[in-house]
């Protein structure tokens, strides 16, 4: 697509820092003269995406809370949202990608305190690995579903990478979280022997349908039912923690097989306040060090999805094969964004919160 003006103006949701709310703002992208000399297009290495849907994640709230006042000096319009699905409307002459104008892509935009995906347009620099995390949409998904999987399925794949789970017994903490749902489906399709998951009673049915043999209500005592499961069918080979918490560590050598693996993406505390995040990271990293030094009878990993983990193509195959499906709680219109954000902050939802940005 060739544009008439050097400046592409659009709307996006953004915040300046933790003390200011997320608001609808005007933003712009600077274009360059097109090769033909007529009109404007994107710089050589870039692609421009017209965003149709963006999905929200708990990390969006965490990043807002971590935007200390001084950061507003560097970028007073920090976009919100990481997941997106949209149409490629311009491709630079030297862009490092096979996608073409008119393709619809699903992606994860990694840069922190930069632009966001709850935005009418997003320009991606294909030379940057944290912006080049996308693939064309899976043929069996709606565009809203296509915006909903990159962060959660990518994280689930990262949590299970390198683990052999055929015939293994696995405890999934946070089985109804979006990451947990993907983890359970991957474990099921990989032939895990027994999956036990923690969730609320309201999520029991869906979590079992996805592949858990049994569920444990995390609102009551977690330890006793986990120990009961060990008595009944033996120790767990892996604990895959998608929600955070330290309930099991007092009895971990009974729960987790010697040489087993405990993978977390949250650490010892769940919550999005700065204080809780710092405690959680500190405790988690202490365990990582203890694990690396051989002080633990099991391997403990605190994992973060990073742009170098090249998952989109494999994830797309898993979706197209039907190995993993995507759950959406609700789709909000662009102008209803604040309702969607409130819902995310409430924690009272089941599946992804999606924002529809463009009518189509
Ligand atoms: N390190 C990383 O790279 C990375 C990447 C992605 C996500 N994360 C983190 O992983 C966590 C999950 O993210 P998500 O997007 O998958 O979550 P999500 O979809 O927002 O999870 C919401 C669900 O979590 C369940 N839940 C809440 N507290 C729980 C608890 N104490 N125990 C078990 N389940 C609980 C609730 O389900 P029910 O009450 O119905 O059971 C709720 O519906 C977040 O903290 C997120 O920040 C980290």
What tags apply to this protein structure?
360 residues; alpha/beta; Rossmann fold; 28% strand; elongated; YIM1/Zinc_Alcohol_DH_Fams; NAD(P)-bd_dom_sf
Give a topology summary.
Layout: E1 7-15, E2 23-30, E3 32-33, E4 40-41, E5 46-56, H1 58-65, H2 71-74, E6 78-79, E7 83-91, E8 104-108, E9 121-125, E10 134-136, H3 143-148, H4 150-160, E11 169-173, H5 178-189, E12 194-199, H6 204-210, E13 214-217, H7 223-233, E14 236-241, H8 252-255, E15 256-264, H9 274-292, E16 299-302, H10 312-320, E17 328-333, H11 337-346, E18 352-356
Parallel strand pairs: 11-12, 11-14, 12-13, 14-15, 15-16, 17-18
Antiparallel strand pairs: 1-2, 1-6, 3-4, 5-7, 5-9, 5-18, 7-8, 8-10
This protein binds NADP nicotinamide-adenine-dinucleotide phosphate.
Account of the 3D structure:
The chain has 360 residues and is of the alpha/beta class. It has two domains: 7-149 and 326-356, Medium-chain alcohol dehydrogenases, catalytic domain (Quinone Oxidoreductase, Chain A, domain 1); 152-302, Rossmann fold. The protein has helices at residues 58-65, 71-74, 143-148, 150-160, 178-189, 204-210, 223-233, 252-255, 274-292, 312-320, 337-346; strands at residues 7-15, 23-30, 32-33, 40-41, 46-56, 78-79, 83-91, 104-108, 121-125, 134-136, 169-173, 194-199, 214-217, 236-241, 256-264, 299-302, 328-333, 352-356. Strands 5, 7, 8, 9, 10, 17 and 18 form a seven-stranded mixed sheet that branches. Strands 13-12-11-14-15-16 form a six-stranded parallel sheet, with helices on both faces. Strands 2-1-6 form a three-stranded antiparallel sheet, with no helix packed on it. Strand 17 (328-333), helix 11 and strand 18 (352-356) form a beta-alpha-beta unit. Helix 4 crosses helix 5. The longest helix is centred in the C-terminal third of the chain and has 19 residues, at 274-292. The chain binds NADP nicotinamide-adenine-dinucleotide phosphate (NAP). NADP nicotinamide-adenine-dinucleotide phosphate binds at residues 57-59, 151-152, 155, 174, 176-179, 198-200, 202-203, 218, 242-243, 245, 265-266, 270, 303-305, 347, 349-350.
């Amino acid at each position: 697509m060739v544009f008439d003006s050097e400046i592409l103006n659009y709307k996006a949701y953004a915040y300046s820092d933790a003390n200011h709310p997320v608001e609808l703002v005007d933003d712009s992208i600077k274009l360059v003269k097109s090769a033909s000399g007529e009109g404007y297009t994107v710089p050589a290495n870039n692609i421009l995406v017209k965003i149709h849907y963006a999905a929200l994640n708990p990390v969006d709230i965490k990043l807002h809370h971590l935007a200390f006042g001084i950061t507003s000096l560097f970028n007073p319009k920090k976009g919100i949202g990481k997941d997106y699905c949209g149409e490629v409307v311009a491709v630079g002459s030297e862009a490092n990608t096979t996608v073409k104008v008119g393709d619809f892509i699903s992606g994860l935009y990694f840069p922190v305190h930069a632009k966001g995906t709850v935005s009418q347009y997003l320009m991606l620099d294909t030379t940057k690995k944290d912006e080049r995390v996308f693939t064309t949409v899976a043929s069996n998904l709606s565009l809203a579903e296509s915006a909903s999987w990159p962060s959660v399925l990518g994280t689930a794949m990262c949590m299970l990478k390198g683990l052999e789970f055929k015939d293994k017994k696995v405890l999934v903490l946070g089985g109804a979280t979006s990451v947990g749902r993907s983890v359970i489906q991957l474990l099921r399709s990989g032939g895990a022997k027994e999956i036990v998951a923690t969730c609320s009673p309201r999520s029991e049915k869906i979590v079992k349908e996805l592949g858990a043999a049994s569920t444990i209500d995390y609102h009551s005592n977690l330890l006793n039912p986990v120990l009961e499961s060990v008595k009944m069918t033996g120790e767990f080979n892996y604990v895959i923690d998608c929600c955070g918490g330290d309930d099991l560590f007092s009895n971990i050598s009974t729960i987790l097989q010697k040489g087993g693996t405990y993978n977390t993406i949250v650490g010892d505390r769940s919550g999005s306040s700065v204080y809780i995040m710092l405690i959680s990271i500190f405790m988690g990293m202490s365990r990582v060090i203890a694990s690396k030094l051989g002080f633990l009878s099991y391997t403990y990993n605190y994992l973060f999805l990073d742009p170098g983990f090249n998952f989109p193509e494999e994830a797309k195959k898993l979706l197209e094969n039907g190995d993993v499906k995507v759950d959406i709680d609700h789709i909000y219109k662009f102008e209803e964004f604040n309702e969607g954000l409130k819902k995310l902050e409430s924690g009272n939802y089941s599946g992804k919160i999606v924002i529809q940005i463009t009518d189509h």
